[in-house]
Amino acid sequence: MTPRSWLFIPADSDKKLGKSDETGADALIFDLEDSVAPDRKGLARDMLRAHLAARPPGARKAAFYVRINPLDDAALADLAAVMPAAPDGIMLPKTLGAGCVARLSLYLDAFEAAHGLPAGQTRIIPVATETPRGALTLAGFADTPLPRLVALTWGAEDLSTALGASTNLGADGGWALVYRMARANVLLAARAAGVAAIDTLYVDFRDDAGLRLSCRAAAAEGFDGRIAIHPAQVAGINDSFAPSEADIAHARRIIAAFDAVPGAGTVGLDGRMIDIPHLKQARAVLARHAAITART
Ligand code: COA
Ligand code: MG
To answer: Last residue of some domain: 222, 240, 258?
Structure first.
């Protein structure tokens, strides 16, 4: 099942590492990049290595990813520290496009071989919009064979820094146009590449109602999950990216309507036309519900 909530945990905090087992997040992202100050990178690497070593694969409660530093920064040292623990995947920041994912994939080939891990098991989720070049070349993810690619996500903070912008918000308080474009293109590129789309973080971590509203809108647009920065965001994200009771009931009624007219390509339901895309969507809703139920 695609994780709904992806919780960031700064790897240089004993307290936060210690909390990670109990958060209920579908996936944890241990962070070695921007939540760790430059002079603490080595310490964070050592702390994460020790934390992971104390949790052999059978003892883990959630999928775990590691956000490494960018490829031209400390990526190899980060991979050397975490690959012995066989992470489910690597989050790659500041990507310039599909080529960066292909390069990381080659590194992972080598680390998997070195540590006796099954070839290709380590997944990759790039943060695909943190550089202008990345934001402009999203379609490349659909054009390049990238078997490790599991999802695309996006971020507004680094992009606005790169653009020299003083804010990433528009006059209405929502994302400014360039970030809305980047976000929409991430969803399109993820679907074109056949992988999940993960929405960026909701910065106000005490505003549960606002988070839920925003997540439900993202889920309705097609996003599969969302980055979390605080344990308090996990429940809101998990709830919002699971089909609701009403979604499930509606999907069952659509399937029943088609079952009642064998061979029909289109049927009426509540005075509205329903056709094959609706049937596929209804099946997808029930499959997602089943996967979430099986997990919990
Ligand atoms: N993972 C695990 N535990 C976390 C956590 C996280 N992401 N964020 C907070 N906690 C813990 C705190 O350590 C605290 O523990 P305590 O009760 O034992 O003291 C508890 O949850 C409550 O935290 P709170 O006081 O509400 O927040 P804070 O002020 O300590 O931290 C942030 C706020 C934003 C600094 C913190 O949530 C954080 O570091 N988030 C991740 C940031 C990140 O990784 N950014 C990079 C990706 S964009
Ligand atoms: Mg960043």
So the answer is: 240
Ligand 1 closest atom vs CA 15? 13
**Burial annotation 107-139 (CB, 10 A radius, 16+ → b, else e):** bbeebbeeeebeeeebbbbbbbbbbeebbebbe
Q: Is residue 179 pLDDT above 90, yes or no?
A: yes
pLDDT digits (tens, 9 = 90+) for 143-177: 999 999 999 999 999 999 999 999 999 999 999 99
| Tally of domains in the chain | 2
Please indicate, yes or no, whether residues 118 and 170 belong to a single structural domain of this protein: yes
If you measure from the C-alpha of residue 171 to the centroid of ligand 2, how many angstroms do you get, rounded to a whole number?
Answer: 24
| CATH code for the domain of 92 | 3.20.20.60
Asked if residue 232 and residue 129 are part of one domain, the reply reads yes
CA 185, 188, 194, 198 torsion-angle sign = positive
240, 246 in Cβ contact below 8 A?
A: no
CA of 182 to the centre of ligand 2 (A): 15
Encode pLDDT of 5-60 as tens digits.
999 999 999 999 999 989 999 999 999 999 999 999 999 999 999 999 998 777 78
* Residue to mutate, 65, 125, 168, 230, ligand 1, most ligand atoms under 8 Å from C-beta: 230
- Using the mean position of ligand 2's atoms as its centre, give its distance from the Cα of residue 122 in Å: 22
Report the C-alpha gap between 286 and 198 in whole angstroms. 20
Position 1 scores a pLDDT of: 83
What is the reported pTM?
0.95
* Ligand closest in space to the Cα of 234: 1
Pocket lining for ligand 1, CB < 6 angstroms: 7-10, 15-16, 19-20, 31, 34-35, 201, 229-231
Cα Rg, the chain, nearest whole Å:
20
Q: Which domain holds residue 67?
A: 5-240
| Whether residue 286 sits in one domain with residue 210 | no
